[in-house]
Here is the input.
Amino acid sequence: MEGVNKNYEDDKVLYEFINILKLIIYSLIGIIIFCIPIKLNGQSLTIIYHIAYKLQSDVGPFIEVCIILYVTLGCIKPIIKNNKKDNSILTYIPLFSILIILSIFYGKNEIILLDDNIALLMYELILNISTVFPLSAIFITFLMNYGFLDVVESYSHSFMKRNLNLSGKTLVNILIYLCTDCFCGMFMTNKLYNEGKIRESEACNIILNFSILSFPMILYTSKDLNIKSINLISISLLILIITNLIMSRTYPINNKKKSYYIKTNYKETVHKKDKLEKAVKKYLSNKTKTNIFKSIINNLEESIFVLMKLIPNLVLVLYLGQIIVNSNLIGEIINILINPILELLTIENKEALNSFNINAFYNVIIGIDSVDSHTQYSTKFLIGTIAVLNCTSISGNMLYIKNTNIKISNKEFLISYIQRIIIIIFIYSIMYYFYKGYIM
Here is the structure.
């Protein structure tokens, strides 16, 4: 009997050792792939971007064919699915995106009267999404399924919950937004929500308040606006913390349910001591027997299905969205709400700032590119800060949310966007005038 018990204990120790080893190795793989920049070919990028750009360079034409194939399938599927019903004209509109993509890939922009700058933006976005997004879905398995979330939650839960109304594990999700883009970040947010690991209020909080620009885009913003990147990152980080302390407690976040999408045995835990040991025990107690290769294939398959819907909608939004965003209604709403604040704070180049805010609501890259090089430096810095922290765009999270079970209305997106801009302007102005009056 003692021999049986000894063998059982030995097997248990071996099982725990193997799983702890997996936790360490897989977590390191995920961190290195997503977060550690490596300099190759003169570019300092994370491995996931090096892989994506290598694929684009070596097999670009094949990727373009794949994009056309699954976009076509994504457009035709709803028509076939509704074959027995009366299909409205709206069902057929996504087919126009196929023509746009073909025109972009094969240099016939004049056929669809597409501006060259928008065509180039579309090409880069489509190609990047079609490579970075599936790669992220593959490697995100290492961060989500093997205990890394539990370890991070054990150390950060108290701070995150007390200050930002978020579970500690969401810190990993925020890192994905920072190291990739909003689409990859929202893929993880949606998975955490669907698996019952974060609440509806937390999912909405992350999407509305933490889907900030990634580090590569921050560097692009600072270069395009001729701002020192270290200054932009430092100021943006400080304003991000202050802004989200406020935004995580106001509408629409305080109006969201604090319930989970599904009920599971997974529970939030607060560890006051022996954090690592207890995090590992929690991981082992909740561990499933899903094979890593099966998880990777499932995530890759899910990402392809998302792209089949996302790319046609993104193309149509970028093609037609400028008309909507530049309509008098949206412009007047933003001007009426923000102009009095700009005048009160004596912000210079108000027209340039308002024009950027409208364009950034459409697409942040277009907003940045629309800024005049002669705009005053302080206003350009404010524009750069808003670009990094605005967290909402029609061609970004507002578009992706349609592919998720997370409920955020267009009205809530717009209100959150305007609130966020106003708070950022106030905080920035206080910091700027303090610096100008007491430090300079």
Observations:
- Residues 321-439 form one domain.
